[in-house]
TrEMBL record, chain A:
Record's protein name: Bifunctional pyr operon transcriptional regulator/uracil phosphoribosyltransferase PyrR
Key words of the record: Glycosyltransferase, Transferase
EC code(s) of this entry: 2.4.2.9
InterPro entries (alphabetical): PRTase-like, PRTase_dom, PyrR_bifunctional
Domain Phosphoribosyltransferase: 6-163
Pfam families: Pribosyltran
Domain of life (superkingdom): Bacteria
SUPFAM superfamilies named in the record: PRTase-like
Phylogenetic placement of the source organism: Bacteria, Pseudomonadati, Bacteroidota, Cytophagia, Cytophagales
GO molecular function per UniProt: uracil phosphoribosyltransferase activity
Automatic annotation (TrEMBL), chain B:
GO biological process, any: amino acid metabolic process
Residues that, per the record, bind carbamoyl phosphate: 59-60, 109, 137, 140, 265-266
Domain Aspartate/ornithine carbamoyltransferase carbamoyl-P binding: 7-150
Gene (UniProt): pyrB
Protein name: Aspartate carbamoyltransferase
Reactions listed under catalytic activity: carbamoyl phosphate + L-aspartate = N-carbamoyl-L-aspartate + phosphate + H(+)
Gene3D superfamilies recorded: Aspartate/ornithine carbamoyltransferase (3.40.50.1370)
Family: Belongs to the aspartate/ornithine carbamoyltransferase superfamily. ATCase family.
Biological source species: Aquiflexum gelatinilyticum
Amino acid sequence: MQKRLVLDQQQIAIILKRFCHQLIENHDTFENTVLLGLQPRGPIVLDKIVRLLEEIAGVKVPFGYLDATFHRDDFRRRDFPLKANETKIDFLIEGKKVVLIDDVLYKGRSVRAALDAMIAFGRPQKVELMILIDRKYTRDYPIMPDYCGVKVNTLESQYVSVEWVEKGFEKDAIWITEKA
Amino acid sequence: MSQLSTRHLLGIKDISENDIQLIFETADNFKDVLNRPIKKVPSLRDITIANIFFENSTRTRLSFELAEKRLSADVINFSSSNSSVKKGETLIDTVNNILSMKVDMVVMRHASPGAPHFLSKNIQANVVNAGDGTHEHPTQALLDAFSIREKLGDVAGKKVAIIGDILHSRVALSNIFCLQKLGAEVMVCGPITLLPKHIDSLGVKVEYDVQKALEWCDVANVLRIQLERQQIKYFPSLREYSLYFGINKKMLDRLGKKIVIMHPGPINRGVEMNSDVADGEHSIILQQVENGVAIRMAVLYLLAGAK
């Protein structure tokens, strides 16, 4: 199987640090900001951002995990329903600035579903999107990230695989691979 | 796997332990949805569900209807008391007429055991059994086991006594299948006339002394005396039944351990249990009702989602 490295561990670390500095620049003291990781893979990125923000700026930003399975638009279009993941949001987002965090932005359909799911927790003042990998020219919906790690050109026949140490891999790495 | 092994939920007997665990895991997520400020998700927005009730029901019908509405399905309700069934229409004709209105799923309660099985063989829509005579009531058994899992952490290894009118109870049979598939030990307890012959062949313990049953169990699931299904007298009087098989707080206090008290409802207070038990600290009866909606949402979601 063909496999091309997009980001290695050091490059990912640099991007995550940049994200934190951009967040500090835009959200100042974070008093009205919350971070939401999109299940199933966003929470890993989110956890890293939360840790880094505490290290760099000494701030503890409220965060939660958002699952949008029940809000997806492909129900009954798959052979079987997707299994949902845990949603863990212990606060209301009414009037808050929300930063949605995920690893890869592809069609934009998951983010659309997440926006829909998020509304169950209140009406936010503003919503931003943070993405590690933006797959260019693949969008089905008019959704663009506010914070972007790298943009990559990919084909329909390829997918982006994200490997984390937390998931048992030797090093953090992001690859483009051909679908089998 | 995130797929049930069946297109219909006709009984617990027909589904696997994996199916039950998948329903529980999905219900966990729906229970979370039900505790949000906005309790509705759009999953079933292009699905139409017919609730067809040929027998009286309050909580099951309401629970299914609420589950369907929380999933954004379109719902039509039918009860036989004010329908053409009274004019002699057959079951299959009634249901086909409803299905010609483009219904995707049917939730049915019927007095005849096997009615939903018959239906599932003759129509395209998914069928969910909401109780068929004295046969099965699968969603009740699922919500009972789900409530035990929630209260005690797990169902496996737990001792569950089902106490009361076992003979006429579809809840008892579904509970026995469900609890055994999940690894629990099951005992039935009641007057000898209200225990089916050969019930021990299902692998359950049989006990006639309710105090001994309470001493043995971690969970007591207490059933209602179903007078409406009894054509002959199975015991001399309700007063005598209450005296020998009714549960009161003194009996629970004597145990020296805390057991969980369940009841599928409706409760005949003062007959199978006193109010101090039904409303007491041991009781999870209202949690059962709450869990019923999450379980039914999970069942409908998983059945509707399969192609």
